[in-house]
Amino acid sequence: DAKTTQPNSMESNEEEPVHLPCNHSTISGTDYIHWYRQLPSQGPEYVIHGLTSNVNNRMASLAIAEDRKSSTLILHRATLRDAAVYYCIRAQGAQKLVFGQGTRLTINP
Amino acid sequence: GAGVSQSPSNKVTEKGKDVELRCDPISGHTALYWYRQRLGQGLEFLIYFQGNSAPDKSGLPSDRFSAERTGESVSTLTIQRTQQEDSAVYLCASSLDPGMWQPQHFGDGTRLSIL
After folding, report:
1. What percent of chain B stands above pLDDT 90?
2. Number of C-beta neighbours around residue A58 at 10 A
3. Does A100 touch chain B if contact means CB atoms closer than 8 Å?
């Protein structure tokens, strides 16, 4: 049971920001929120993770709701190479990531 | 640097045959994971190694599946008496240290097709 809920698909335009939502209403206090993405015919790629505070790295930003029941992955300026399936995962530590169906992101030129 | 390497990249075999899938993790990574991804689905956890030991085998679907790791490096996933439902992409990942939070680095998988 992945225990996260994401939209099946989203679409955006190149060079525009993208906000990918995730609900994790039953998250416990020690569960991290992880995001991975998977490009076609490749293994998943780590994007970002967080616990309580908003996080930024070179790939994306992660905004976590104050009650931690939801989070949003933000791609600040989408490129065609960002087209992928994005997985929101809750996990304790790095063991046994439980992947759901993810959100298939399409980027229009 | 070198990432996680899996071989073969593709494997086609007849139902009932045994198959071995290999994973070479990133050098120095103590944790190694196997996942399975059926067509159009998310990843299913199979097994996790810390060093050469497997503290969590909870995802192995049946006793036809086994895995080992040697030298805290290479791992082999073996499927005996393959069935058509075993057809999937088998993905391996490694991480520096599971005791602390570390991202998992994935290979590109072995696509297994059972005829």
Report:
1. 83
2. 5
3. yes
